[in-house]
């Protein structure tokens, strides 16, 4: 029951406040030309780092370009021109499928008692 309540609470189709928040995040991402998946930090979660390593290089290069452009615009205190903001698709996912696969593989390895594919190291 609690999980269905939480799903309704965060579902933008069913909750006005969630829809309002999603619109606000979408507008903010469009201003800088980012996608929501660009906000995941590979240094924070090793599953994300592994998922990014498995993606095609064109997708990772496009992600890096979007991040560089966003940092450049932020440093200049500017936004993308309105015509480019209109073309942005901030919630078109490119990482979620691969991330789900990596998490499933990690959970399966843990269930079987196998060694993890990667270890966290302190730099």
From TrEMBL:
Biological process per Gene Ontology, one example term: mitochondrial electron transport, ubiquinol to cytochrome c
Note the superkingdom of the native organism. Answer: Eukaryota
Q: Does the keyword Protease apply?
A: no
Q: Does the keyword Transferase apply?
A: no
Which Pfam families has this protein been placed in?
A: UCR_14kD
**How the protein sits in the membrane?**
Peripheral membrane protein
Q: Which GO terms describe its cellular component?
A: mitochondrial inner membrane; respiratory chain complex III
Q: Which Gene3D superfamilies match?
A: Cytochrome b-c1 complex subunit 7
- Which of UniProt's keywords are assigned here? Electron transport, Membrane, Mitochondrion, Mitochondrion inner membrane, Respiratory chain, Transport
Where is the protein situated, by its record's location annotation?
Mitochondrion inner membrane
Question: Where does the UniProt entry say this protein principally localizes?
Answer: mitochondrion
Coiled-coil parts of chain? none
Its biological function? Component of the ubiquinol-cytochrome c oxidoreductase, a multisubunit transmembrane complex that is part of the mitochondrial electron transport chain which drives oxidative phosphorylation.
Subunit annotation: Component of the ubiquinol-cytochrome c oxidoreductase (cytochrome b-c1 complex, complex III, CIII), a multisubunit enzyme composed of 10 subunits. The complex is composed of 3 respiratory subunits cytochrome b (MT-CYB), cytochrome c1 (CYC1-1 or CYC1-2) and Rieske protein (UCR1-1 or UCR1-2), 2 core protein subunits MPPalpha1 (or MPPalpha2) and MPPB, and 5 low-molecular weight protein subunits QCR7-1 (or QCR7-2), UCRQ-1 (or UCRQ-2), QCR9, UCRY and probably QCR6-1 (or QCR6-2).
Similarity field: Belongs to the UQCRB/QCR7 family.
The name this protein carries in UniProt is Cytochrome b-c1 complex subunit 7
Say which species the protein is native to: Raphanus sativus
Name the encoding gene, please: LOC108810991
